[in-house]
Amino acid sequence: MNLSPRAQVISIIIVSFIFGVGYNAVRTESLSLLYQKPVERTVEEVDSLLRETTILSVPEYINLESAKEMYDRGIIFIDARDEEEFAEGHIKGAILAPSTPELVQLFPDRSSPIVTYCSGGDCDVSMELAEQLMFDWEYERIFVYLGGWPEWKAKGYPTH
Asked: Which residues pair with 114 in a beta bridge?
């Protein structure tokens, strides 16, 4: 059977699509086929999120008010940006994302809550760090402040 060039292209696209979706379905770290907007936890939920009995299965997103409340309670903030950006300014008291051995020495209690942040907007480095903390290093209560450094600074909250 001879297919026209146009039909061949369409056939290749369809077969590729089916193969891609099928492969994604069987891989261990499959990608979401639909975008899901992150749900940010509000300041009203902070008490519940910080309870010792609260079990998180994935890092939780928090908004500015929740981040400030956690900051005021002395929760650890880790800046996921690079060293140069960190040196230009960061949330007061935050630490630059350390390597695994340093982190374990700094925070041996894996149940301590930790907030990660980066440059906000499209920056996803804080989410990558949060997933690494939770899934690779087995920290139990990880939060991602989505607004990041620009939002914090614009609000006039403590910086260094």
From this structure: 76, 142
C-alpha distances out from residue 135 to 53, 54, 113, 130, Å = 19, 17, 15, 8
The neighbouring-strand residues paired with 143 are 60, 115
Cβ-contact 79, 94 below 8 angstroms: yes
Say if residue 68 is in the same domain as residue 147.
yes
Alpha helix segments (H runs only) across 51-97: 64-72, 83-88
- pLDDT, one tens digit per residue, over 16-35 is 888 887 887 777 666 666 55
From the centroid of its chain, how far is CA 120?
Answer: 11
β-strands 95-96, 114-117 pairing: unpaired
Q: What is the CATH number of the domain that holds 144?
A: 3.40.250.10
CB atoms within 10 A of CB 144: 27
The residue range of the domain holding 26 is: 1-33
Q: Cα 96 to the chain's mean position, in Å?
A: 15
